[in-house]
Amino acid sequence: MPIPSEAASSLWFDHALLPEGWARGVRLSIADGRIASIEAGTERAAHEVDNGVALPGVADLHSHAFQRAMAGLTEGRGPAGAGGERDDFWSWRALMYRFLDRGGPEEIEAITAYAFMEMLEGGFTRIAEFHYLHNDPTGSAYADPAELTGRVVSAAEATGIGLTLLPVFYAHATFGGAAPSHGQRRFINDVDGFARLLEAGRGLISRLPDAVVGVAPHSLRAVTPDELAHMPALAGDGPIHIHVAEQTKEVDDCLVWSGKRPVEWLLENAPVDDRWCLIHATHVTEAEWREVAARRAVVGLCPVTEANLGDGVFPAAAFVEAGGRFGVGTDSNVQIGLSEELRMLEYSQRLTQRGRAIMAEPARSTGRALFDRALAGGAQACGVDDAGLSVGAVADILGLDHSRIAFADRSGDALLDSWIFGGDRNALRSVWRRGRQVVADGRHVARDAVEAGFRKALAKVVAA
Ligand SMILES: [Zn+2]
Which of 80, 223, 297, 298 would bridge 85 by S-S if both were Cys, CB 3.0 to 4.6 A apart? Predict the structure, then answer.
């Protein structure tokens, strides 16, 4: 069921972040889901509502929506920890695989819709869903092999979020084409089956107004070089996303397999360019990140998940200085919010470099520089060209409530810094997608129904 609200024809804001900078008294007129005109320096008319501080909506460039249901369930010591070994990414992954024993199409759709709704409430107006659950809990294809892809599309439709659908190609357990493990049975495909899934995905998204389809070879562990070579042609004009170098074990295993590090191998063996998004790329050498920057690929940083999983820290400041592009993603969705991702990104840099304002740039504060770069990088990685409040752009708009104490006596970049670092979760009051209000007073317009569906799904997938 699509969201019911009508599109606005005009919105007035006290402040707005426009591509050329901050403006006061901004009226945006909207037609057919796009910004038709922008007037700055206006007075609010008697019939107009003050919508606060306008920011462009940002894309969340990486998510596995179903993992939202696991938030808070993997924070205890597992068998590895109890045995004296450390809990780590790999013990978390074992728990995640067990979680997949349950959960059919209805549960997957309900959990996905809940995650997408929270993304809108958290400032993300588009999601690149790295969708790797394809098969039923026994590992067999559904009668319609694109059943679960269709559920992701339905969740986007129900919440109104912009969708960049990234069906995942996953065929092997580790480097060298190893047979997949039992825990991976819901992900597995071959190249022909994947091509059919992709075609089905392209048909399914045609009912959404501005959806994009790309491809996601899961990782160098999960695809062979021959399989990877098929991906750029299968992507067509769409983006190509891959997990790479998230964990030091992956780097070590890749060195054993090929004599190269994962990012090094990828740059030498795949046509990495501005269509590509390298998710995490945490463990990179300077030669690797300089080459990623030169190829104009986006690095997909997921700071909250990377912290939660103990992955490590990407050298973001040096990368940006070299012209590198990044966006942010919510990945495991343990917590969903744009300001949280940007704050964690900056704090990870501060903690490792023992400095302050690491991501700030000349004439742009830390929050502003993080926001602008995540906006541009997110759009590029999602395969959409317009990002920002400009005439002709899609009317994806965030409205911060500037009456809140967090914003008292603030203007310009300090508004963003106060939102990101002041941590007022209720500051984001309104969100419009294609000019339709999907979040009002901080709540998604369909929250009650979506939350009820999520509770029902949790009862089925979490209960022992
Ligand atoms: Zn991921």
Answer: 80
**What does R_g of the chain's alpha carbons equal in angstroms?**
21
Ligand 1 (ion): residues with CB under 5 Å are 331
H or E element: which one contains 353? helix 338-353
DSSP track, 359-381: T-BTTB-HHHHHHHHHHHHHHHH
Q: What is the per-residue pLDDT across 326-342, written as a single tens digit (0 to 9) for each?
A: 999 999 999 999 999 99
CATH number for the region 10-56+388-449 comes to 2.30.40.10
What's the mean per-residue pLDDT of the chain? 94
The predicted structure's pLDDT at residue 5: 67
The pLDDT tens digits of the residues spanning 334-378 come to 999 999 999 999 999 999 999 999 999 999 999 999 999 999 999
**Distance from Cα 279 to the centre of ligand 1, integer Å:** 7
- Give ranges for CATH 2.30.40.10 in the chain: 10-56+388-449
Q: How confident is the model at residue 394 (pLDDT cuts 50, 70, 90)?
A: very high
Residue ranges of the chain assigned to CATH 3.20.20.140: 58-382
Task: Give phi and psi for 36, each to the nearest 5.
Answer: -90, -35
Helix/strand/coil for 464: coil
pTM for the whole thing?
0.96
Distance 29 CA to ligand 1 centre (A): 37
- Residue 64 CA to ligand 1 center (angstroms) comes to 6
Fold of 58-382: TIM Barrel (3.20.20)
- Using the mean position of ligand 1's atoms as its centre, give its distance from the Cα of residue 331 in Å: 5
- Would you name the residues annotated as active-site residues? 280, 331
CA of 129 to the centre of ligand 1 (A): 9
